[in-house]
Amino acid sequence: LEKPTYIKFVPINLPVPCISNELKIGIVRTSWNEYLVGLLTERIKQNLLDGKIHSDNITEVLVPRSFEIPWTAKILAPECDAVICIGLLIKGETMHFEMVSQSVAQGLLNLQLESGVPIINCVLNCLTEGEAEARCGPDTIISPCARWNTTGVTVAGGVKGNLSDQLDGPEGIFVYKPLNRLYVADFNNQRIQMFLLNQSSSTGVTVASNVTFPSNVYVDDDGNSEPTVYAALYKSDCVNQWVNGSKEAVQVGGECRSCTGIAVDNEKNVYMSEPTRHRVLKWSRRTNTTTIIAGQTDQPGSMSNQLRRPQGIHIDRTHGTLYVADSDNNRVQKWLKDAQDGVTRAGSSLGVAGNDSASFSDPISVTVDEVTYILYVADFNNRRIQRWLPNATEGETIAQGSSMFSASKSLIGVFSKEN
């Protein structure tokens, strides 16, 4: 056989019978070849969200294999304006490859003719695993089995100071992939610095100055020429926002004492951790109100509805799931959207500190790869970055500091570029 031509995924243009954000979309996806199917599914869902489809109007159903897709789509079709079917068939040595492929395709075609509902067939047929990876994956994928060099490379700072190529007490970091930029909360210099990652120069640009001790930074695309920058201000007890390159800050939300963690979802709601009050807040952009979504006000504890000095947070922009680095409980908590209680995703559910692979000692930052759902955690006192695979009972060290000083500074934040 000749080497197949790899076809890159392109956005789907759905028919629009009504206002786009009122469309109800069903997604049927397989758990077989879960990693690559997950990559494809997340890209399709992001296209839907970018097209103003509301996340609450997307129903996702998981089936074991491609053969079950047509039957499940038939159940979803009456309740949806369109059904997207996602799976992956790899021929390899599979003798019944053609039979399954033809059966699925014919079943979906018949369903569309019978129901009148658009049934979008995204079940890919590939000859090899290499072809499957090329068709499903983005240009760069962080594999669950990836290994890192044990020696780190300095991409910003390295010398204490306030010059453009220096930092002093950097804390939160954010990689803005569309422009390949690194944003740094330069705590003691009271500024937000930006560094270009695709250039050899280590000179930074100050995008926000006179920022009262920023502990974290988040960058979001608002459709302007420049992204919107958010900063958690530890000593000003609030979150500030800079829109489209503006030098003037605007406060979002109310008071957030010793504000540390910050995240933004697809609807531009802002999440902020308040460690001294042991809770996480959510500011609604639509209603301009702030609510408590995790923890109990001024009631620290290790029960499922409590937190103890929460710091870094991550919001799953697709599903609204909140992840919290629950520092003094030595764990990472996962809170589903609108849940009253969290569950321990990593570390000790009882709040016990440790230095083994199943434990943390003061975890201060967490990020989640929203394709593979792998957690990356900055384990402060153990001077290491831990990787936790889905459903794992222990983590794996992927980076470690050589001394207390270097680790406490260089490993204070963690961010996955592919999010």
TrEMBL record:
Pathway: Cofactor biosynthesis; riboflavin biosynthesis; riboflavin from 2-hydroxy-3-oxobutyl phosphate and 5-amino-6-(D-ribitylamino)uracil: step 1/2. Its EC number is 2.5.1.78. It holds the Pfam family DMRL_synthase. CDD domains: Lumazine_synthase-I, NHL. NHL repeats lie at residues 294-338. Keywords: Repeat, Riboflavin biosynthesis, Transferase. One of its GO terms (molecular function) is 6,7-dimethyl-8-ribityllumazine synthase activity. It catalyses: (2S)-2-hydroxy-3-oxobutyl phosphate + 5-amino-6-(D-ribitylamino)uracil = 6,7-dimethyl-8-(1-D-ribityl)lumazine + phosphate + 2 H2O + H(+). GO terms for cellular component: riboflavin synthase complex. GO terms for biological process: riboflavin biosynthetic process. Belongs to the DMRL synthase family. PANTHER family: 6,7-DIMETHYL-8-RIBITYLLUMAZINE SYNTHASE, 6,7-DIMETHYL-8-RIBITYLLUMAZINE SYNTHASE DMRL SYNTHASE LUMAZINE SYNTHASE. This is 6,7-dimethyl-8-ribityllumazine synthase. It comes from Rotaria sordida.
